[in-house]
Write a structure and sequence with these properties.
This protein is α+β, with helices and mostly antiparallel strands and 449 residues long. It is 25% helix and 26% strand. It is built from 10 helices and 18 strands. The strands form 4 sheets. The protein has a 7-stranded mixed sheet with strand order 1-11-18-17-15-12-13. A 6-stranded mixed sheet has the order 2-7-8-9-4-16, covered by helices on one side. It has a 3-stranded antiparallel sheet with strand order 3-6-5, with no helix packed on it. A hairpin with a 5-residue loop joins strand 8 (150-156) and strand 9 (162-169). Helix 2 (63-77) crosses helix 3 (175-189) and helix 5 (273-288) crosses helix 8. The chain is globular. Residues 226-235 have low confidence and may be disordered.
Length: 449
């Protein structure tokens, strides 16, 4: 089974990054000035998502040449992805809704350098906070209506290797459409045509008129603006408490063993790698809290994203660029999580995903049109495991590793791919208060032993 739990090794806290050039890049051709509406899914995702992509030295593509290729590719890609050169703004007739002003204001581009070779960073798989230096957004305006929706930074290292850091507002992409964007960017950098023609029209996920909320949606929390009214915390909130950060590696063999445990309960649903890993995380997280371990009647809700592209009728185009993932949930008591068979937990995760039919998805979208709120649960599993960012082929090869720049938040657990590929296993990134982390680690080891 190997070393299944690891604290982060000592890592360089300051990558000694110098910003050498900062500029705006504009569409290569004239694009239409217009206003692009955002779906109710896009509306609640108005925060930046940052990823870093590590590349070894290439004899034909030193960092400066790769950076120039990327800058030229960015100019080209801002034509079919014209909204990326725009800016977010509030709808002048409805101040509670955002939209994109496709005004050709440009995307950000940064050339930077580090004083270190890549080998001194340590293992790339650890989502170290110092990675923030590899995509420095605040080089540009942080005012909403002036802030670039996309910033790309190329940072060279002493060894000749380099890192591409990309920051995009989440309202512009989900993980699947961002992967398509990377494929298109890499294709244009190789002087080839687009790999996939993007479908930018967000009206496909517009709310029905009038909106029809046909389910109760216990996984959603309505935010009420009344002064003095207490709000229940959502998983998107940060906490000032001291938090420990730990890394749990599950190999392909570990995952196969989890699947066998699920089969032993005569489960009648599809047993996937994601479902068994999520069920394990749910059990350990719920029982790691003091109340969860002492109160078997306490309820626990786990949240996870489901791609709805193929679940809608008719299905969305696979090249749809907006956010087409919704939050599914599974709910059980801590007693069920502790004493019940593992197969039943896997079934509940599967049932949560299966609940996301066309009508259920449309009901969530309509809920978002009539209410303001967020997903509500005890833990959110955010999976980057099989998005395949490291499979994208650039003119200088595939990344050695790709990962998000992480904000360490309690109750959000990340699934990241193994450095050798998603088929080799998964890295589970957990952030918890020290006592809860100790209990989580114990539960995880006991279950996997």
């Amino acid at each position: 089974m190997g070393n299944i739990s690891q604290e982060p090794p000592p890592l360089i806290e300051d990558l000694k990054v110098t910003l050498n050039k900062t500029c705006l890049v504009f569409p290569l051709q004239e694009t239409e000035r217009k206003i692009m509406s955002l779906s109710s899914i896009d509306q609640v995702l108005q925060f930046n998502v940052e990823t870093v992509h590590f590349f070894s030295a290439h004899p034909d593509f030193p960092p400066e040449k790769a950076a120039e290729k990327l800058r030229a590719a960015l100019e080209k890609i801002l034509v079919p992805y014209d909204y990326l050169a725009g800016r977010l703004r509030l709808n002048p007739k409805r101040a509670d809704r955002l939209e994109i002003n496709c005004n050709r204001a440009g995307a950000g581009f940064i050339m930077a350098s580090s004083e270190f070779p890549l080998s001194q960073i340590g293992e790339f798989v650890y989502p170290h906070p110092a990675y923030r230096q590899l995509i420095v957004r605040d080089s540009f305006s942080m005012v909403l209506e002036d802030m670039p929706l996309c910033v790309l930074q190329v940072t060279s290292f002493k060894c000749g290797g380099f890192v591409i850091g990309i920051s995009t507002n989440h309202a512009t992409f989900d993980g699947i459409s961002f992967k398509t964007f990377l494929e298109n960017l890499s294709s244009l950098a190789a002087d080839k045509p687009l790999a996939v023609t993007p479908f930018n029209d967000r009206q496909l996920l517009a709310a029905r008129s009038p909106p029809r909320v046909t389910f109760s949606h216990p996984e959603l929390l309505e935010l009420k603006p009344s002064l003095g009214e207490e709000q229940i915390g959502s998983v998107f909130e940060t906490t000032p408490a001291k938090l420990d950060f730990e890394f749990f590696r599950l190999t392909d063999n570990d995952i196969s063993r989890l699947k066998e445990k699920a089969k032993s309960g005569n489960v009648k649903t599809k047993i996937t790698a994601f479902n068994v890993v999520t069920a394990l995380i749910w059990r350990c997280k719920a029982l790691s809290t003091e109340e969860g371990s002492k109160n078997p009647s306490k309820s626990s809700t786990i949240l996870f994203a489901v791609d709805i592209r193929s679940r809608l009728n008719p299905p969305l185009p696979q090249s749809y660029t907006g956010n087409a993932v919704l939050t599914a949930y599974a709910k059980a008591t801590c007693g069920e999580l502790e004493e019940g068979p593992f197969s039943r937990l896997v079934e509940m995760v599967y049932e949560g995903s299966s609940r996301m039919t066309d009508e259920y998805a449309r009901s969530i979208i309509d809920w978002g049109e009539t209410h303001k709120g967020f997903p509500l649960g005890d833990v959110l599993v955010s999976s980057w495991w099989k998005l395949g960012f490291a499979d994208v082929e650039y003119p200088w090869g595939k990344p050695k590793y790709s990962c998000p720049v992480v904000c360490h938040r309690q109750d959000i657990i990340l699934l990241l791919p193994d450095i050798n590929g998603a088929h080799c296993g998964v890295n589970v990134v957990v952030v918890l208060p020290p006592k809860e982390m100790e209990k989580f680690r114990s539960l995880f080891h006991v279950f996997m032993s």
